[in-house]
């Protein structure tokens, strides 16, 4: 066998093992959240599970309720999902109560009618996550639905990381993915909630888009272009508002581009045209669906028209801090700071605030003009866009925005900041140590957030610290899940350290690349 052929096959095996290891580690982190939350106990869980079970049985919308909210509809689903709508209220309404208060649910294949308030949401996500309910109409089937959602989210995070390894010169981008995937992202991605997959696909969109525009615009690898198109198109199909976030991301990426002429040369490539067509068709489908089915109708308490505009704007401004906290971690149905509800520990918020602030400030100081504009526009959009969208419907839905809704756009901020910094010169000597320290801090913050959720469901928010043998126990037990999650999170900074130490420090620059670079060998 020729040496070049043998080396090529060895490289393929190595790449395959790398992808498999990355996916396995990522899936474990999402799957732990799938198991730690009690059946039907995550945010909007009963309604989301009912919707998924209905869609795979051919009920894309269901039967509208006369005189009801436009988002409500009645569907026919297995009785286990109907019973599940009543299960979590004993501990959801009382944060001091363990999930052990919930009654047992018997498996049943018989169909019953039930109302869901997410009936008009786009069906694509639910058509996938609802499939296990056709195999097992039971609590086991519910866990299988969650694990399938976790696998989908893990897939796109893995693809984002592999895109960095294959096509980017930046070593900071891997750390930035760890920042973008907040505890709230893992929580949502590990449960049946389209918001979770929307966020993880957005991470892949941002990563591939930044690499494409910032590093590979003049001779883009075909795989990178296709991956960007697949991630953007998939994202557009998930939620009614998803195409809007894709458009905003594209506008930010346009700010980074060298100019219209470079983009026109890019558009002439066939893979770019096919990818653009897929994204356009996906956006068109979701937009038409949202218009026809009123998918953007929001439940809430309308603000009276007598309230002044100044008062509304002042209220929106005061809510902004809560939105930012919710993007990191707000794990109960009540998503605001107060005496009730489960929030991530203070150290988790402080860690994310410190890492993101340092990254953005460093990026603004050390980057070029285009990147400063992109960073500033993204940071401003994270604050202003929710205020504008809430203001436009405040008299219909009140202050109904939640911080997690902004995460598909906010995920781009640390990723942009990562490519804004050239880690040579002053940072080169201690660079990998700084990255390892930041990754370790993020991993610790993730573990503490997960432990807080384990504690809350096992014995209640104010329960005893010894929660491993009392109260409600999830599959694999509280102790087992905590150990598995901690092990996966500890492995993350180790892998980041190894990656950063063995990857050459190269400047992030635009321009023609070599054949080896086009194939991902840098």
Q: What labels describe this entry?
A:
about 525 residues; mainly alpha; 3-stranded antiparallel beta sheet; 23 helices; 3 strands; globular; disordered C terminus
Polypeptide structure, described:
The protein contains 23 helices and three strands. It has 522 residues and is mostly helical. It has one domain. A three-stranded antiparallel sheet has the order 1-2-3.
Number of domains: 1
Strand content range: under 5%
- The SS-based structural class is mainly alpha
- Strands of the widest sheet, in order across it, are 1-2-3
Please render the helix and strand layout as text.
Blueprint: H1 3-36, H2 45-55, E1 63-64, E2 73-78, H3 79-84, H4 89-92, E3 111-116, H5 124-129, H6 132-135, H7 139-167, H8 172-180, H9 183-189, H10 194-214, H11 222-236, H12 242-256, H13 260-267, H14 270-293, H15 309-328, H16 346-366, H17 369-392, H18 394-397, H19 407-410, H20 412-420, H21 431-459, H22 478-502, H23 515-518
Antiparallel strand pairs: 1-2, 2-3
Helix pairs in contact: 1-7, 1-9, 1-22, 7-10, 8-20, 8-21, 9-10, 10-11, 10-12, 10-20, 11-14, 12-17, 15-17, 16-17, 16-20, 16-21, 17-20, 21-22
In short, what is this structure?
It is built from 23 helices and three strands.
């Amino acid at each position: 066998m020729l040496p070049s052929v043998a080396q090529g096959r060895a490289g393929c095996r190595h790449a395959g093992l790398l992808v498999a290891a990355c996916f396995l580690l990522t899936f474990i982190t999402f799957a732990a959240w799938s198991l730690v939350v009690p059946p039907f106990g995550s945010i909007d869980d009963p309604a989301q599970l009912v919707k998924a079970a209905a869609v795979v049985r051919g009920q894309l919308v269901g039967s509208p309720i006369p005189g009801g909210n436009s988002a409500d509809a009645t569907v026919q689903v297995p009785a286990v999902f109907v019973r599940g709508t009543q299960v979590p209220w004993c501990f959801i309404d009382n944060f001091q109560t363990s999930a052990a208060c919930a009654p047992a649910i018997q498996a049943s294949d018989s169909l019953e009618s039930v109302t869901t308030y997410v009936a008009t949401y786009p069906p694509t996500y639910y058509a996938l996550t609802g499939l296990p309910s056709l195999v097992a109409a039971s609590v086991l089937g519910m866990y299988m639905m969650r694990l399938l959602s976790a696998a989908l989210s893990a897939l796109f995070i893995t693809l984002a990381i592999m895109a960095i390894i294959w096509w980017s010169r930046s070593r900071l981008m891997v750390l930035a993915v760890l920042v973008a995937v907040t505890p709230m992202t893992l929580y949502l991605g590990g449960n049946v909630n389209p918001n979770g997959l929307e966020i993880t696909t957005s991470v892949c969109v941002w990563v591939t888009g930044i690499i494409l525009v910032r590093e590979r615009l003049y001779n883009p690898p075909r795989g990178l272009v296709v991956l960007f198109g697949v991630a953007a198109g998939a994202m557009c199909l998930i939620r009614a508002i998803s195409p809007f976030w894709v458009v905003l991301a594209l506008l930010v990426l346009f700010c980074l581009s060298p100019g219209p002429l470079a983009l026109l040369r890019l558009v002439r490539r066939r893979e770019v045209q096919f990818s653009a067509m897929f994204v356009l068709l996906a956006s068109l489908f979701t937009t038409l669906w949202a218009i026809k089915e009123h998918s953007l109708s929001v439940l809430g308490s309308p603000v009276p028209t007598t309230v002044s505009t100044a008062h509304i704007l002042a209220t929106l401004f005061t809510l902004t801090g809560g939105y930012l906290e919710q993007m990191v971690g707000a794990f109960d149905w009540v998503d605001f700071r107060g005496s009730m509800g489960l929030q991530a520990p203070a150290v988790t918020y402080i860690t994310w605030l410190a890492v993101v602030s340092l990254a953005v400030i460093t990026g603004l100081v050390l980057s070029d003009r285009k990147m400063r504009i992109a960073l500033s526009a993204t940071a401003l959009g994270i604050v202003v866009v929710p205020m504008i969208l809430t203001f436009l419907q405040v008299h219909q839905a009140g202050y109904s925005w939640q911080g997690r809704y902004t995460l598909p756009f906010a995920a781009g901020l640390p990723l942009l900041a990562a490519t804004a910094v050239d880690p040579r010169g002053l940072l080169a000597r201690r660079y990998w140590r700084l990255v390892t320290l930041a990754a370790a801090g993020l991993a610790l913050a993730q573990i503490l957030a997960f432990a807080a959720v384990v504690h809350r469901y096992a014995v209640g928010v104010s329960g005893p610290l010894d929660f491993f043998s009392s109260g409600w126990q999830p599959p694999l037990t509280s102790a087992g899940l905590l150990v598995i999650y901690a092990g996966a999170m500890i492995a993350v900074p180790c892998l980041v350290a190894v990656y950063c130490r063995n990857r050459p420090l190269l400047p992030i620059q635009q321009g023609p690349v070599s054949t080896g670079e086009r194939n991902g060998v840098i």
